[in-house]
Amino acid sequence: MPTLSVLIPTRNRPQKARRAVDSVLANSFGDFELIVVDQSTDRLTQVALSSIHDRRLRYIATDTVGAAISRNIAIRAARADTVVFTDDDCVCERDWLASILAEYVAEPTALGVFGRVVPYGNPGSARDTIGQSGDMFCPAVQASMERAVFEAPAIPHLALGGGNNMSFRKELFQKVGLFHETLGPGSRIGTGEDTEMSYRILWHRCKLVYSPRPLVHHDNWLDRPQFIQMMKVAMRAQAAVFLPYALRFDGLAFFHLVRTGWYLLRNRMGIGSSWAGLAYFGSGLARGPRYCFLRPPPL
């Protein structure tokens, strides 16, 4: 049985997927399996990976759609007690897995470890959760150099980061369930499956660690129109994810919704139009109540 199971969902990005796989297989720590769940509409990713002759690589093709579905398929297929996630548009540092293991040794009761994410090709451009170089933007980064331990609710994308550099003890999914498959890329809401999972874990008072040592580079540079569209979708997901917790009288979730709505009203979220941002936010609020009753899939 491997010590770690590394899980990569991918869809129609064969060159980036090959690069991500190569970076994982080149890690200094070698006792792991690498599961790639491919939702591509063609065979290009399968062909790109077929020349890799490494017994640690496991390839799963599926006709499903959605990052959350892909993650759940990989979790159920994983043989290790600890699962590690990155994305197909990431490049992992050579000591990435060794650094994750070191954090579990340092914090034996932790059920999850998140790591640092910097923009690919321009790591110094990261500011908070977004990298910027000229008129190009790289979202979903986490540049903090401060290690932190959480055992109570915190805003995940600010405190921990996202699904491109996170890991969990598999026993955690027995406690809180798997990813909601109606969230995330490929769903109608469009993103947010990792945010919802992280907040659900913290809401159950499970211990999570953020460490700057496990490092990946995120290659998802967007031009301004692409970035604006991404932010609109993110506002919809934020509303859908946090409203159910606010309805359960969670003060932090309620405050986060109010603050986000205020920032949108003041046009401070990079969307360029307060009304467009509020419209997406409102559509998320309309979808949010269902998650008060929708149970996550079991392990």
What does the secondary structure layout of this molecule look like, with pairings?
Elements: E1 4-10, H1 14-25, E2 32-38, H2 44-50, E3 57-61, H3 67-77, E4 82-85, E5 90-92, H4 96-106, E6 112-119, E7 126-127, E8 130-133, E9 136-138, E10 148-150, H5 156-159, E11 166-169, H6 171-176, H7 193-203, E12 208-218, H8 224-247, H9 251-265, H10 274-287
Parallel strand pairs: 1-2, 1-4, 2-3, 6-12
Antiparallel strand pairs: 4-11, 5-12, 6-11, 7-8, 8-9, 10-12
Helix pairs in contact: 1-2, 8-9, 8-10
Descriptive account of the structure:
- With 299 residues, this protein is of the alpha/beta class.
- It folds into two domains: 4-222, Spore Coat Polysaccharide Biosynthesis Protein SpsA, Chain A (Alpha-Beta Complex), CATH 3.90.550.10; 228-292, no CATH class.
- It contains ten helices and twelve strands.
- Strands 1, 2, 3, 4, 5, 6, 10, 11 and 12 form a nine-stranded mixed β-sheet that branches.
- Helix 8 (224-247) packs across helix 10 (274-287).
- The chain is globular and about 55 Å long.
